[in-house]
Amino acid sequence: MAGVRMSFLAAFPPCLQMLIELAEAANLRGKIQDMFRGEHINVTEDRAVLHVATRARRDQQIYVNGQDVVPEVWEVLDKIKEFSDKVRCGEWTGATGKPLTSVVAIGIGGSFLGPLFVHTALK
User: Fold this and answer.
1) Distance from CA of residue 74 to its chain's centroid?
2) What is the pTM of this model?
3) What pLDDT was estimated at residue 54?
4) Distance between CA atoms of 87 and 84, rounded to whole angstroms?
5) Can you tell me the distance from the alpha carbon of 76 to that of 72, in angstroms, rounded to the nearest whole number?
C-alpha cells in the first residue's frame, strides 16, 4: 500500500534481537567481508559476487583473484550507458529500421548469466 509503512522492529522489539542473533549465527559480517574481498562466495558458479564492484566508484579498487575488476566493470557500465542513450534518443533501431520503443530483459536467477544473456542477444 503506497505511503503506508510499518516498522516491525518498533512494533515487536524482540524482532531486532532475533535478527541480530540470526545474523551472528549465519556469520553475516564475515560473509560481507568476504564479498568485499572478492572471495568466491557464489557456490553455484564458484565465483565472486560482484555486487559491490558494480556500485564502486571509478577510483575504487576491488580485487578478485588478484586482479582489480573495477576498470572492467566500468567499461561495461559505460557500454550500457552508451546503448541506453542510443535507445532513448532513437538512434538505435531494430530490424525494421524503426527506433526501439520497448526493451525487455529477462533475468535468469539474479546472477551474471542474466545480463550476459541480454548482452549476447543484443550483439
Assistant:
1) 13
2) 0.61
3) 85
4) 5
5) 6
